[in-house]
Amino acid sequence: MSTALGISAVTAVLQYLFNQIYNASDLGTVSITAVAPDVAQANLGTDSGTQLQVNLFLHQVTLNAALRNIGLPVLAADGSTQLKDPPVALDLHYLLTAYASYDTGAEALLGYGVQFLIQNPVLTRAQINAAFLPQNLPSSSKNPLASNLGLAGLAQQIEMVKIIPATLGREEIAWLWTALKADYRPTFPFQASVVLIQSQNPVQSALPVLTRSVSAQANMLSPFGALTDVTPPGGQPAASLGDTVTVQGANLSGAVSVVLINSQLGIQQTIPASTTGSGSSLQFTVPNPPPPAPPAPPTDLPAGVYLLAAQVANGPDIVSTNSLPLAIAPTITIPPSSPITPDAQGDAAVTITCAPFLRPGQEVSLIIGGASAPASPFAGPTNTPSFTFSSLAAASPPSPPLPVRLRVDGIDSPIIDMTKTPPVFSGPTVQIA
Fold first, then answer.
1. Residue 368: beta bridge partners?
2. Measuring CA to CA, which residue among 266, 254, 280, 270 is closest to residue 309?
3. CATH code for position 310
4. Do both 40 and 63 map to the same domain?
5. What is d(CA 317, CA 364) in angstroms, rounded to the nearest whole number?
6. Under a CB-based contact definition with an 8 Å cutoff, are residues 190 and 166 in contact?
7. In the chain, how many domains are there?
């Protein structure tokens, strides 16, 4: 595969080959350039004795239709670690333009160029390597990239670069030269296909397989662990820090741990798990570490939605099950002071203490009754967010207690006791004075 310099390398190889062709002809001295036509026209004849010039101009780069989907990015289970970096397949569209200061000179130049392109439909590896030999490189003053283009890997591509004549209609040619702001000269359009550019950044790669274990069974039931349901305690829709979560499934007798992944925050944590005797369920406790002393970063799991998978021992191997969503809810550990007294405009500043710590980038809001306010901006993890309400109307006498909820990334703190029939409000409340 080529590096990002693969496009420049194709142009440099073509420029080298045209130099070889025209120097072997009986036309005399021919200047070969690879610049925009307006630049080529401005520089025409500035070199002493130069009367003939051929310009190679890359006017468009498009994705190759046949190879654009040959490789797709492959990510690990965490949704962020890239395991495979596919190449980008490109077609390069060129204009070969001839300039001459005497009769029939431009036609002769164009004839040699077209003949070469038709008779050499593939840029061979030998031609590419020859173009970047030290003795064939242009001086650094003309092309400062010359010494680096040989390392682009163009000759090592799996697909060779092929030359394909192109056809541009009268309107396309007129529009193109008008956009270039240059006078039209005899031109031959062609396409170089395909250039495969691949990032050189390192990616993770799986280790080779040492042994293969293949077995057959007499039924269609899977022998591997599978998860079917995740149940937070107390009938709550989300778990809180310190809660014991029950996970239902099949073939879980060998489960040793669960993995919680939040790709949005880039978090992956493994938590020990215990199984029941039947192997149809397992339990684990959401970690609830004590708050660290500043400035140490918090180690608790942020509120949000996680993907939960169990790690099950299968002989000498540890196999991951399917993933199910699990929401971890925030909790209000110290509610706002009650009653809240808005000012004359109905504004009120409110501060709470919560768990887990809030991380920058999370969407945080506090809801009092039906009024909601976003958290004031915070640059680092915090468990004491502040909010400014602008829609609280003063009440006289004080309003009845209003439930208070903290919403983080769409997950609300629990305020309902689901163990009662019917459920009742049980969370923190405040009054508006």
1. 371, 404
2. 270
3. 2.60.40
4. yes
5. 41
6. yes
7. 3
